[in-house]
Amino acid sequence: MEELKDLRARIDSIDTRIMDLLQERFATVREVIVVKDGAGIPVRIPARIDEVIDRAERLAQDRGLPPGLGRALYEHIVEATCLFEETRLGEDTPENRRFAVAGRA
């Protein structure tokens, strides 16, 4: 049982690092918001969203992770990021949320 406890502690440590990386990602998104706002660029650019999600799935596959994991994770991460941006830019509307659901087929 001690071995399992140690392994679980390692997983907890990895999870903490994942959250730290997400925090770093969102800090960068705050900078993106400033650029997009200044240039009048919309939050949701479907081609870019697809590019990010497809890249995540390729990276996951290259690392031997379960099929679909990269896509599933990044669909959530990208959606959370878009909602974060929209909220800060005053674009968090029901129409945007509908697009978010319908736009991810």
TrEMBL record:
Gene3D superfamilies in UniProt: Chorismate mutase
Keyword Isomerase: yes
Domain Chorismate mutase: 1-89
A matching Pfam family: CM_2
GO terms of biological process kind: chorismate metabolic process; salicylic acid biosynthetic process
Molecular functions (GO terms): chorismate mutase activity
Catalytic activity, EC: 5.4.99.5
Enzyme class: isomerase
Keywords: Isomerase
Keyword hit for Isomerase: yes
Listed InterPro entries: Chorismate_II_sf, Chorismate_mutase-related, CM_dom_sf, CM_II_prokaryot
Record's protein name: chorismate mutase
Naturally occurring in which organism (per UniProt): Futiania mangrovi
